[in-house]
């Protein structure tokens, strides 16, 4: 009597297609959001710290409504030192209220004149103010001309001033590098996992053949 041996080969348990697609979608969304956050932080750091430092400009925050609607409160304005003779009517300038004092104002030039000593004198006015500023602005009061402005980043600029800036800048930089390292590590792990899966599938296919 002949006994037939029946060998049962266990079929590999495969992940449900829907679950696999869902996990891949979650990873993609997470990576995309993380990249957007990274890019956003880099743009903020560039606009408030890096670019002004490189070009010798000064980042400031608009705190009042005098320049609305163009530059509402919270707008970051970056001003660059500019020769007085290069400032024209229509330019937005930042100047000291009183020469040598720290308080500054950012308003638009509405008139340019030269006094008897050859010094340029500027008449300024806030876009949202009904009247010009009461006192003319002398060359010695000028801090610079507006180079660019970014709505909302003025609050960030204020938050990053002084000791807090010195504390947060290295923390943010370290966090960005850490995030980049984690992202690269995850990508490498995913690549190795895909290769193992493809190799296992090829091996199984050859065995089935």
UniProtKB/TrEMBL annotation:
GO terms for molecular function: serine-type endopeptidase activity; signal peptidase activity. One of its GO terms (biological process) is signal peptide processing. The chain crosses the membrane at residues 33-55, 167-189. It comes from the Bacteria. NCBIfam families: sigpep_I_arch. This is Signal peptidase I. Residues 40-110 form the Peptidase S26 domain. InterPro entries: LexA/Signal_pep-like_sf, Peptidase_S26, Peptidase_S26B. It comes from Leucobacter viscericola. It is found in: Membrane. Pfam families: Peptidase_S26 (PF10502). Its EC number is 3.4.21.89. Keywords: Hydrolase, Membrane, Transmembrane, Transmembrane helix. GO terms for cellular component: membrane.
């Amino acid at each position: 009597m002949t006994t037939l041996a029946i060998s049962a080969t266990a079929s590999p348990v495969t992940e449900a297609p829907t679950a696999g697609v869902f996990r891949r979608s979650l990873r993609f969304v997470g990576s995309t959001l993380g990249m957007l956050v990274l890019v956003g932080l880099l743009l903020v750091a560039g606009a408030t710290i890096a670019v002004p430092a490189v070009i010798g400009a000064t980042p400031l925050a608009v705190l009042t409504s005098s320049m609305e609607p163009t530059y509402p409160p919270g707008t970051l304005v970056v001003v660059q030192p500019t020769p007085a003779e290069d400032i024209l009517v229509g330019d937005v300038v930042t100047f000291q209220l009183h020469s040598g004092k720290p308080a500054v104002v950012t308003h638009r030039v509405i008139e340019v004149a030269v006094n008897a000593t050859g010094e340029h004198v500027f008449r300024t006015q806030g876009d949202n103010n009904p009247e010009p500023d009461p006192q003319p602005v002398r060359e010695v009061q000028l801090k610079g001309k507006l180079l660019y402005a970014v709505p909302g980043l003025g609050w960030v600029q204020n938050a990053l001033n002084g000791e807090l800036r010195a504390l947060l800048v290295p923390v943010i930089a370290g966090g960005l590098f850490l995030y980049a390292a984690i992202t690269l590590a995850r990508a490498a792990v995913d690549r190795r996992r895909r290769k193992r899966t493809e190799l296992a599938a090829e091996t199984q296919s050859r065995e089935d053949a």
